[in-house]
């Protein structure tokens, strides 16, 4: 099984660790990620405020490239804003042929056309529905026992198109985190907005959004995210957001595939944990306990074997 | 629908006979029944001068200039909670984005300035094909001409620098989107 992979701009820059950990986890799960060659920006959350047609044309180009390079493959997107932009093109052009023709005109210069059959999938959707907790649990070598994780979904993976989870009370990450051996924090901010691009335009408003989320996550060892913008707002602006707040307690913010990688025996260096901007002593201590609990000697050799050829080994042993 | 047989009540803008720039947004929210689910769902309503519900009402009553000058839609972070919960199924987040676009074109100078970040973002995408974060923020600061603005981002900039996350812009995909941008401009000229 493999996917057409659209990393998006953030994953090549400020969210490099999200890209690296996603690729490593997919390798562990023996799933292929074929990066779309020549992909360009989808317009993120900004394009809507500039041009309605451009908001469809930019993602349409990537969809056209995916259709040409990887026909029949689902398009996997780890960034929630990129996911929504591409999904919206498919949803809107599928029900409006005139609009589809207009959008196709914008990408005709490169001989690209939309393929209405392409499914745009969020990373979390694929992990939950194509992989599933059972297969993830089988790949776990060092369970995250004793680690309490607050699953944070943000907005655009869930809304306005509720494809794979309840958009009001999402729960799809619970099964994954349980498969990793972690404890899931039951909290009410899992689907509350982080402020998104207001951090650039109206920072005070966005900082209030962030402070509310961090305050509610105080019980957790870390927050798990599935979007580079959520991650950036929660980690990079944490100090500013917590300034003056009564429950001013730092919270570690990590990408879900980073946690998955750690549970699957990858090292903190492998999943680029050093790139994260909000790491706490509390998380480090919890991860130390976890790695001590696992049998490090046998883990290392096992890890080494798996790194050589995890997939062929799995298939030959069956 | 019975409501359709009555012309919309206009109290705000003096009738000029010219098409009102906000008519397309008015159409999106025509069926608003003022329940306030949007306001109750909005994470940023506390920062708005008009609540979303009040703004839809003002819009439908013809207060075009007041709506264009309002802060409300600029505070929308596109979380889609209102869109999801609207019992009329109205595309409210889309309406907010369209208001940002129209205010940057037709609004007062202060409103046009608020569109700066979005325009800087799209200019960056046009130029480089993929967003180049450092170059984007540089051009945003330059366009805003506010010496205090960069200071608000300095702590984060330092953190990103220390983590090796700030890069000079990459020219690898420069110009790739020229044709697409030209075609969009042409098509938008003749809808």
Written description of the protein model:
The complex is a heterodimer of chains A (318) and B (191). With 318 residues, chain A is an alpha/beta fold. Chain A has two domains: 2-122, Glutathione S-transferase Yfyf (Class Pi), Chain A, domain 2 (Up-down Bundle), CATH 1.20.1050.140; 132-297, Rossmann fold (3-Layer(aba) Sandwich), CATH 3.40.50. Chain A contains 14 helices and eight strands. Chain A has a four-stranded parallel sheet with strand order 2-1-3-4, sandwiched between helices. In chain A, strands 6-5-7-8 form a four-stranded parallel sheet, with helices on both faces. The two termini of chain A are 17 Å apart. By secondary structure, chain B is mainly α. Chain B has two domains: 2-108, Alpha-helical ferredoxin (Fumarate Reductase Iron-sulfur Protein, Chain B, domain 2, Orthogonal Bundle), CATH 1.10.1060.10; 116-189, no CATH class. In chain B, 55% of the residues lie in helices and 0% in strands. Chain B has eleven helices and no strands. Chain B has helices at 23-29, 37-41, 52-60, 64-69, 81-85, 92-106, 109-114, 116-128, 133-144, 148-162, 178-189. Chain B is globular. Chain B starts with 22 loop residues before the first helix and ends with a helix. The mean pLDDT of chain B is 91. Chains A and B meet through α2, α4, α7 and α8 of A and α5, α6, α8, α9 and α10 of B.
Which features would summarize this protein structure in a list?
heterodimer; A: 318 residues; alpha/beta; Glutathione S-transferase Yfyf (Class Pi), Chain A, domain 2; Rossmann fold; 2 domains; 4-stranded parallel beta sheet; 14 helices; 48% helix; globular; disordered C terminus; B: 191 residues; mainly alpha; Fumarate Reductase Iron-sulfur Protein, Chain B, domain 2; 55% helix
């Amino acid at each position: 099984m493999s996917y057409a992979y659209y990393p998006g701009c953030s994953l090549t820059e400020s969210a490099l660790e999200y890209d690296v950990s996603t690729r490593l986890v997919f390798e562990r799960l023996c799933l292929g990620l074929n990066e779309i060659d020549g992909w360009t920006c989808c317009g993120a959350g900004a394009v809507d405020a500039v041009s309605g047609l451009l908001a469809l044309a930019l993602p349409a180009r990537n969809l056209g490239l995916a259709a040409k390079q990887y026909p029949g493959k689902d398009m996997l997107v780890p960034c929630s804003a990129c996911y929504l932009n591409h999904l919206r093109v498919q949803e809107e052009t599928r029900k409006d042929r005139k609009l589809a023709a207009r959008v196709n005109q914008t990408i005709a210069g490169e001989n690209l056309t939309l393929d209405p059959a392409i499914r745009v999938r969020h990373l979390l959707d694929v992990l939950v529905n194509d992989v599933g907790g059972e297969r993830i649990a089988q790949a776990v070598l060092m369970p995250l026992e004793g680690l309490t994780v607050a699953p944070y979904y943000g907005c655009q993976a869930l809304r306005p198109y509720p494809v794979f989870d309840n958009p009001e009370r999402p729960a799809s990450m619970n099964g994954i985190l349980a498969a990793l051996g972690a404890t899931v924090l039951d909290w009410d901010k899992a689907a509350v907005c982080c402020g998104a691009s207001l951090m650039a335009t109206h920072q005070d408003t966005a900082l209030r959004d962030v402070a509310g989320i961090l305050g509610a996550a105080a019980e957790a060892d870390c927050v798990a995210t599935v979007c580079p913008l959520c991650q950036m707002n929660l980690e990079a602006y944490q100090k500013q957001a917590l300034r003056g707040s009564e429950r001013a307690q730092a919270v570690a913010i990590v990408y879900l595939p980073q946690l998955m990688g750690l549970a699957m025996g990858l090292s903190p260096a492998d999943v680029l944990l050093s790139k994260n901007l909000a790491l706490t002593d509390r998380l480090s201590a919890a991860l130390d306990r976890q790695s001590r609990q696992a049998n490090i000697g046998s883990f290392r050799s096992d890890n080494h074997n798996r790194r050589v050829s995890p997939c062929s080994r799995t298939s030959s042993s069956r | 629908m019975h409501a359709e047989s009555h012309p919309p009540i206009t109290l705000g803008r003096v009738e000029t006979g010219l098409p009102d720039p906000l008519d397309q947004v008015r159409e999106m929210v025509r069926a608003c029944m003022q329940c306030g689910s949007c306001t109750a769902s909005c994470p940023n309503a506390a920062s708005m001068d008009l609540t979303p519900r009040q703004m839809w009402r003002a819009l439908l009553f013809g207060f075009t200039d007041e709506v264009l000058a309002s802060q409300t839609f600029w505070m929308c972070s596109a979380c889609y909670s209102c869109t999801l919960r609207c019992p009329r199924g109205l595309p409210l987040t889309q309406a907010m984005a369209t208001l940002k676009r129209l205010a940057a074109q037709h609004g007062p100078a202060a409103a046009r300035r608020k569109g700066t970040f979005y325009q800087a973002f799209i200019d960056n995408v046009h130029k480089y094909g993929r967003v180049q974060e450092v170059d984007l923020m540089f051009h945003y600061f330059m366009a805003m001409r506010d010496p205090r603005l960069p200071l608000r981002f300095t702590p984060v900039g330092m953190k990103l620098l220390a983590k090796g996350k700030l890069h000079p812009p990459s020219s690898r995909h420069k110009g790739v989107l020229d044709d697409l941008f030209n075609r969009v401009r042409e098509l938008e000229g003749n809808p």
